[in-house]
């Protein structure tokens, strides 16, 4: 059984049809890329999966449960985590406190009031910062980081809830070539415990880290399969690569 199974997703905005019967199936421990020309519906499909947008029609099942009508918070509790393209770190707080707050999101109000969690979570905070090569900046404000480092911090924050599925919308946008390479290295270890859906324009980056790709065009699935299948797909070559 697939971890995520979205079927026949339609999303309309007035007279505009952003998604027209799109399907997306994600296996456990799979890295899956969403690609397609600008305006093809990639981010809209991601938002429908995450609950940021309600599909006009279609169904979404996650971990064996119908979540089509579930709120974003309900999806998060079920094991889904989303990072949008624009970073949402708290710039005046230290890296340490950004991670700590993300971890404390699962803590009871009583525990937060009496500050019982800071000490018990210290090792986990530092472990996550180490995992994303940020431990030496733990006491620095998030605003002092480069754009790429802020993206890494936010990915670490998105993983704080130990999700079953992480959704990333263009995480390498604005990064240097070296930062993109490192981002791929940083994401690989999470595969042992978390599936990934990633919207990305950098085809070299997405080919290097993904097991499967789904290609959207004009709101519908053009093709879906292994990286090798998509690379050799005549439909993709004719429609996507020509327009990208």
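Sequence proposed for the structure above (244 residues):
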């Amino acid at each position: 059984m697939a971890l995520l199974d979205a079927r026949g997703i339609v999303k309309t905005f007035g007279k505009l049809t952003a998604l027209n019967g799109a399907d997306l199936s994600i296996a456990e421990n799979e890295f899956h890329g969403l690609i397609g020309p600008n305006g093809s519906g990639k981010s809209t499909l991601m938002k429908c999966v995450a609950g940021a947008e309600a599909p006009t029609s279609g169904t979404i099942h996650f971990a064996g449960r119908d979540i089509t009508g579930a709120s974003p918070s309900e999806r998060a509790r079920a094991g889904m985590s989303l990072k949008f393209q624009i970073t949402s770190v708290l710039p005046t707080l230290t890296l340490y406190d950004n991670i700590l707050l993300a971890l404390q999101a699962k803590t009871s109000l009583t525990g937060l009031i009496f500050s019982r969690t800071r000490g018990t979570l210290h090792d986990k905070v530092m472990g996550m910062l180490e995992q994303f090569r940020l431990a030496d900046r733990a006491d620095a404000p998030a605003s002092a980081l480069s754009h790429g480092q802020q993206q890494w911090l936010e990915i670490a924050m998105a993983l704080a809830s130990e999700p079953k599925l992480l959704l990333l919308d263009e995480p390498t946008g604005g990064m240097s070539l070296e930062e993109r390479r490192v981002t791929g290295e940083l994401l690989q270890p999470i595969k042992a415990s978390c599936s990934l859906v990633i919207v990305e324009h950098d085809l070299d980056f997405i080919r290097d880290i993904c097991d499967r790709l789904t290609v959207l065009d004009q709101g519908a699935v053009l093709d879906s399969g292994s990286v090798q299948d998509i690379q050799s797909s005549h439909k993709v070559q004719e429609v996507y690569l020509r327009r990208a």
